[in-house]
Amino acid sequence: QVQLVESGGGLVQAGGSLRLSCAASGRTFNSYAMGWFRQAPGKEREFVALINWSGSRTDYADSVKGRFTISRDNAWNTVYLQMNSLKPEDTAVYYCAADPTITKNHARYDYWGQGTQVTVSS
After folding, report:
1. What are the two backbone dihedrals, phi and then psi, of residue 109, each rounded to the nearest 5 degrees?
2. Is pLDDT above 80 for 74?
3. 3-state helix vs strand vs coil in the chain, percent to 5
């Protein structure tokens, strides 16, 4: 069992930066791949970024490639999403998720946080 709590969301102007954190409980955190997803009002939940258990493999949605960076610190049971050059279209609720397998498919993830709101003003 893994419990996830996101933090770090907020209101930022276009071009600004935010760093999201996702703190995980449970001693098996370092056996899980972690993903970040987002959901804007009226839209489907979409993949943003993922990282494997060791941090040696990452992947990103094309819309955030070169602007967002996912990382993890297994000693602190935390995964991060550094978001730079934010755009209004990045506005959404951002969720972290954990799964034993590495996948972009949100339906495959077993554990989810409650989400954190990111709002980018133009």
Report:
1. -80, 135
2. yes
3. 5, 50, 45
Dist. CA 15–CA 121, nearest whole Å: 9
Instruction: Return d(Cα 10, Cα 75) in angstroms, integer.
Output: 26
Q: What is the pLDDT of residues 23-47, one digit of tens each?
A: 999 768 888 999 999 999 999 999 9
Distance CA 92, CA 21 (A): 15
Burial (0-12, 13-18, 19+ Cβ within 10 Å), 59: middle
> Which pLDDT tens digit goes with each residue over 87-112?
999 999 999 999 989 999 999 999 99
